[in-house]
Amino acid sequence: MKTILWATLTGNGNYAQSSPNNPPKEEALGDFATHVQAAGNFIVGRGTFEGMQASEDGWAFTGMDIVVVSAIVKEIPGVTVVGSLLEALSYLRKRGYQTALVSGGADLHNAFLGQGLVDELIFNVAPDSIY
């Protein structure tokens, strides 16, 4: 299975931080949605997922296979919750996916990169002023 890590970076190279009070910009969300549609799934950390739930735009992904990686939370309605990166990939592989899209946050990205589980990187670069 091909694993793609997708992230929005600010112009100065930092991870773009979004929140309910600072939602992702339309351009970044549109790029992400394009990649989600192509993969049919995405893997996300619990904190980032909670931010998506609080955002009106977060549910543009209804019907997609969403896998939340969390050591704390064991169940979230409507998504699959797993305790590890390998469990996330195994779940998607068993569902027949050829590609897994890793979407955030920074800790999840670093964990995937640190374990050598990323085949491709996609960076959406945004000006510092929008995040």
From TrEMBL:
Gene3D superfamilies: Dihydrofolate Reductase, subunit A. The lineage of its organism: Bacteria, Bacillati, Bacillota, Bacilli, Bacillales. Signal peptide: none annotated. This is Dihydrofolate reductase family protein. Pfam families: RibD_C (PF01872). Residues 84-127 form the Bacterial bifunctional deaminase-reductase C-terminal domain.
